[in-house]
Amino acid sequence: MSMAIDSPHLARAQTLLAAIRTTGLIGLALIAILASLSDVIARAPADRAGYGSELQSPSMLYPFGTDCLGRDMLSETLHGLAATASDAVLAMIVTLIAGGLSGFVLARLPFGTGYVPRGIAGVLGSVPALLLAILAVGILGRDFAPYAAGLAAAPLAFARAFDRARALGESPHAEYARASGIPVSTLLRRDLAYEFRDQFIAVAARALAAVTITLSTMSFLGFSAHRDLGLVIAAERSSYLAAWWTAAFPALALLVLVLFARLAATLEEGERP
Amino acid sequence: MLKFGLRQAGIFALGLLGALLLAAAISALPAGRAAYPGAFLQHLLHVAQFDFGASVLTGNPAVAEFSARMAATLELVGSGALMALLIGIPLGIAFGLRRSLRAAAPLIQIVAAAPVFCASLALIFVAVNVLHWHDLHYDGTDLFQVLAARDQSQLVHAFHIFSLPAVTVGAVGVAAVQLVLRGAISDAADEPYRRNLKLMGLSAFEIERIYVAPQVVAHLFAHLGDIVLALFSAAAVAEWMFGWPGAAYLFVKSVALHDWNVVALILLAFTAIKLFADFIGALSAHALAHPESAR
Amino acid sequence: MSETKALIAVEGLTVSRKSNARPLLEDFSLAIAPGETVSLLGEAGSGKDTLLQALVGSLPRGEEASGTLKIRDGSADKIAKRPREGLRIAYLAGPYAKPLSPLASVVSQLSRVIARKLNVPVPAARAEFTLELERLKGAPPVARFEKYPGELDPEILAWGLFAACFAQTPDLLIADDPLLGLGPAQSRALSQILIAEQKRLGFALLYAATGTDIIKRLGGRLIVLRNGRVVEEGPIARLATDQAHAYTRTLFKAMPPLVAKPVQARTGRSEPVLQVHGLEFRHGVGATAAKESVTFELRRGASLALIGEEGSGRHSLMRAVLGLDRMQGGRVILDAVDIGILTSPMMARLRRLVAFISGADDALDPRMTLWDTVAEPLRAHVRLPRSVIADYRESALKRVGLASLPGRRPIAMLSPFDKRRLQVARAMVGAPLLAVIDEPLRGLDAFAQSVMRDLLREFREQEGPAFLVITSDFTVAQALAEDAMVFHDKRIVERGAIADLLKTPKDVRTKRLIEAVSASQQEQKIPSPPPGERAG
What we know:
Chain A has helices at 2-5, 8-36, 38-41, 73-106, 115-124, 129-140, 145-169, 172-179, 184-220, 229-235, 245-264. By secondary structure, chain A is mainly alpha-helical. Chain A has a single domain (2-265), classed as MetI-like (MetI-like fold, Orthogonal Bundle), CATH 1.10.3720. The longest helix of chain A has 37 residues, at 184-220. By secondary structure, chain B is mainly alpha-helical. Chain B is 79% helix and 0% strand. Chain B is built from 13 helices and no strands. In chain B, helix 1 (2-27) crosses helix 2. Chain C has a domain at 272-365 and 417-425 and 433-522: 3-Layer(aba) Sandwich (Rossmann fold). Chain C is built from 17 helices and 20 strands. In chain C, the strands form 4 sheets. Chain C has a 6-stranded mixed β-sheet with strand order 6-7-8-3-9-10, with helices on both faces. In chain C, strand 17 (434-438), helix 14 and strand 18 (466-471) form a beta-alpha-beta unit. Chain C starts with 7 loop residues before the first strand and ends in a 19-residue tail after the last helix. At the A-B interface, helix 5, helix 6, helix 9 and helix 11 of A face helix 1, helix 5, helix 6, helix 8 and helix 11 of B.
């Protein structure tokens, strides 16, 4: 047992994971700063046609070039990033509350009543999140796109949190605590606190990555009211084959956002180096 | 095994019932039938008999609309799944076993971080500007007819049409399969029996082949449903990007145009396929890697 | 012994790991003659495991060995990471080390190991395994091993692991504490088999152990290791009584021998803490099922041991007393309250009077810190200022010897011994009326056992809770309790004062449990109990 504790391989892996997570978090923080200052940094307001001449390739004057309507792609990318990031954060909060937190708390309902919402989450989780989100937008309207994306990612988060909470509740240490008179409410509080401490960043970042992809894909397919990166890329679909920069920079911004979120989640289990 | 099988069948049946309720609720949306329990129950009975009414757009029965499109989606998902298995399994095993390749993990992260539509756009860009393919949009070509005719120019044309959507879906499948496999292999790496059997005198290769491999394959089966989910999700984007006449494209279009009967039917079909994959995956994993089932 | 006669000789063996400043094993030399018995004694991290792995030629990645190794009359070569040629080495691990894959039958895995060693096809190896099982007295039939490791009782699995080693007809048997965690009767039976087979097959034995009991039984030479260095070395006959090094002395005094002298009851007729009236638990299944009911009383400060092998029913009783399982009949009265009629929040409040110390290493929440673990019962049950809680916590940690550890260290980073002591500290702060103590010394090395036993006794003397001790070991029972109930096959076979039981045991099963831990080195013919399979 003590071998596992001072295993050098484990220590190295832990250091590496911490470094990866920190990189992801710093990246996300930088994106947050960029997004919040987008109106200040960007030279042109969002969707401003005729800012420069049409289809200028990247240059000192237009670092990301211009598109077929003369829009400055740097400004478009910054505004798009701000819209995507703010919508994604909203969607992530919906996922965390409707998914993670509810799953964790409902798992402790007495008489196994929590299995009813768990079953519903199982069914909803069997629909691809993208299609579920599109369906929700179809029913609720485009303005609800961030909520739809958040709700669509919630079933899987719910199931994950529920199963984790059940496993914790049935663990030997939980039984030991009950045997020595620790009340069920204290146990729930204890588990919530430790899960928040140990898992929150990973769970939130994972949710952020998932909802960002869903949201931008929805926008790309035309199911969003905001001009976010998905919509910016969709608008350049006809011109990007001749002018690569019109889609490449917004796509790169999207990729970087998702990448940092996934790094902050310290990669999926199997992705660990 | 029997007990486990019955339990899984029960979970599958309950899941189907849930999916049916969801489908009934969606298809009841336009008439507001969902608000009245009696009317909803009657509607549910219709849905349970696969009577989804007509498409409000074409006036054809929803089932006919759906069945005309589902084959194309299954073609796409099938070819994607094939690619996922052919490339994803060796890739997953290589990444899992070879420590030196694990350094490539961040690179995979970058690839995996790209949303499917961005990957499709990149593929199209390469096909048009580098490979000089110009006929990428689906134009009604029947792959099987072309294969039977054996006309080279038609074959090339068909290849251009079919390869990109298949690669798009396949790439997502590859990513999903290798992720599951790598997880399984790194889990198995910590098993104490590997060290002990080696000390007892078995070779590392023997231990991998006889004891670790079934465990890893079982893990893959256990995640079959997740892989199917990823494939269908990718199919929705690929169909839209390449004008592929599939059910996922029809779903997106039908939601946009509020054709709820068709939406409900497609949703039910996709959910049922995923639940079935879960069911088969659980049984296979149990048969491979659970002691009781071996007798 | 002379160098030329050695079966295997290592010279100047040093094993180091890049990340560790200190070598795992330092300048170690050892020569084992054919048929000789050498025991290694040391706690976790002493270098035993490293030595065994280096000898087999299977050091893990990242560990490098220097020094030479000579097999029989061969030349002294550099120690390499490959199987040893010219010497058949069998490796014997215990069932609790989880040595086999959970997804293949025991017989298939063990036959494969035998096949590799004897260089024969697997079916032939299986026949050898079957023959060996038939030869071993008390061993279960080969059909039992058609099952998977998880479906077998560790006791049964141990028979298979031992038989597989003997079937390899080894020159050298390397045993890595194979009896760890097994009950005393089973340990004794298997150690006798090991001695008998060594005589028959003439193999040399290198036995790594954490406890001294088995080493005394095996005889031969003893090497005491600590932090990768040899502390003391010599014939066991001498070292058992005359230890030069203080560390060795601590290891040997861990468990005092059984003495059948009456112990003064600690208290007079004080009020009862726990009363169990006609508590029923079922044994057997189907038509042959029978009900057993038990009635006893535990008064303030008194101590009762529930003694029996694994699966004998002690745990069912303990769980019923703790209110973890629903009772089938009867009443449990804790501090004058019938727990059968309590709601779960009321039960939780009542349980604050009970401390639970478990021998399981996963009993404490691995995410909690050292401080939180100790303070939790106080925070959950009484409203006290932080500073007062901190005082209680510090004093308890000091008493168990953990005050020097960083208080924010998570439980996952602690050793099993530290975790066990922490449970005692946690019990102390609650000032309980009753302490339920389940196999408190299980899996600990001799030194840790000695400390734990003293801690528990001190806890009882100073805080005065009644003790309910669950154990399979009469020495543990004697150290911690005055009275005992002996369990076998979900039935109470004998009860009374431990001193009386030791002097005049009436039931054969009580006798067997006592003999299993009697510190005599003479072989005694003890019929081993028919090993039962795990229920369900």
